[in-house]
Design brief:
TM2 domain; mainly alpha; 76% helix; transmembrane helix
């Protein structure tokens, strides 16, 4: 949820470079096995950003398998929409709150998805090559 405010691009870039270096140490067959498991699971920053345009439903959170945050956004927005009819100031405030929380994620989609893909890469690498590797 708040990774848009806390992620540092240089730190994510360092993690990505460390992953590349670890992959270079693998044999061709190990690297092939890694990519067969990794490629189908990686996420696209443009898809994330497009889904974030619909932040009212938390779709971008579901895309990165952040189920709790997606449900939180969805529930908050549904309550906000219902409250628009019952007590509109509270409904508008809830919708504004979700917008305020999720808007930075729209503008930092590249770094958020790169961080997700880095973590995924390390997870897959450790699963298929449990030899002691330097972790991020």
């Amino acid at each position: 949820m708040f990774e848009a405010w806390t992620l540092k691009s240089d730190q994510v870039a360092e993690q990505e470079e460390a992953l590349r270096l670890a992959l270079r140490q693998l044999s061709d067959s190990e690297r092939s096995t890694f990519y067969k498991a990794y490629n189908p699971q990686i996420k696209d920053p443009d898809t994330y950003a497009t889904l974030n345009w619909f932040f009212i439903a938390g779709l971008h959170n579901f895309y990165l398998k952040q189920w709790i945050m997606g449900l939180f956004d969805l529930v908050l927005m549904v309550i906000g929409v219902v409250m628009l009819a019952v007590f509109w100031p509270l409904g508008a405030a809830l919708i504004a709150l979700v917008s305020l929380i999720e808007l930075p994620a729209l503008f930092r989609s590249q770094i958020i998805v790169a961080d997700y893909n880095n973590k995924l890469g390390w997870s897959v690498l450790k699963r298929y090559n449990p030899v002691t590797l330097p972790s991020p």
